[in-house]
Write a structure and sequence with these properties.
This protein is mainly beta. The protein has a single domain, classed as 7 Propeller (Methylamine Dehydrogenase, Chain H).
Length: 370
Amino acid sequence: MSAAHYIALFLALFSPVLHAAESWPMFRGGPALLGIGPAQLPEKPKLLWSFKTAGPVKSSAAIETKQAFIGSHDGNVYALDLITGKKKWAYKTGGPVESSPLVLNGKVFVGSSDAFLYALDAATGNLVWKYETGDKILGSPNWVKSGDATWILIGSYDFKLHCVDAATGKAVWTYESSNYINGSPAVAEGKTAFGGCDALLHVISLKDGKQIKEVEAGAYIAGSIALDKDRAYFGHYENEFQCIDLVEGKKIWTFRDRAFPYFSSPAVVSDRVVFGGRDKQLHCVKRDDGTPIWSFATRGKVDSSPVICGNKVIVGSDDGRIYMVSLDKGKELWSYEIGQAVASSPAVADNKIVIGSDDGSVYCFGAKGK
């Protein structure tokens, strides 16, 4: 094989991996909402910078083109330089921004409590279009390709899942549930799945917005679903974490510990599932049957959604700390005390961790340059 062929083979094998490590374009890292990040993180991250907003930061960051995009309860969506933490631009919406941005094809898509889904130019922050729903948007957008078109999916407190054309901001279809949609819709294999305050897991065809299945969860679902291989993983308000077979519409297993709800969205890898609870713990269970592997105790509820990076798990807690624990044993490897609740979820890219806090700041951790 020639040198050129070796180079081509190397790029084919490793370019997607290298690119994936440089970006975290949406909530939970990708459309299936699996919460898996690049493995290259420093053993003891250092605070590289912080950026102060004028309200709590419950939104989670998206990272693309060496920039971090994040919302704040001050009503702004911010673009921050990933290296310095300096503000590139800010766009003011009409309400608090708890939704996490999606960065796609040069645009930033994000919801606001003012009931609008916004499309902003990623380079300038200028408004491209906005789409009005009937109530506040707290969850994050997802996306799907349909032929030459790209569609954006967003849930709203108007009980509806909206599918919107990414180029024009025009509605493609809407699906109506019977209560608030709080989390983000997960996307995989031609389907989207989400839970809501109607205590149902909704499985919808992406093609036309028609219902494929509806599964009783037993209580309202405040977090987002993770989807993998026709299985959905999520926790609910009545203290259970569940795995559902989407083909059969049946529960595969249920994990139940103490009488505290689950608002955190799970991270899912080949053999285990990790999620936070309002019992002040981070839980790790076997993916195939839900058997407990370990739990890690914090000093506050864990609504932050964990991210798995190799053998490390990153998560925030209402005790005011961000933690790194080992995936194999749940042992604390590192923590940093911010001082106020951390309900924001980590975004991990370029060997850095970006996370928000109720103290109104965005924090970036990584390896200190020489």
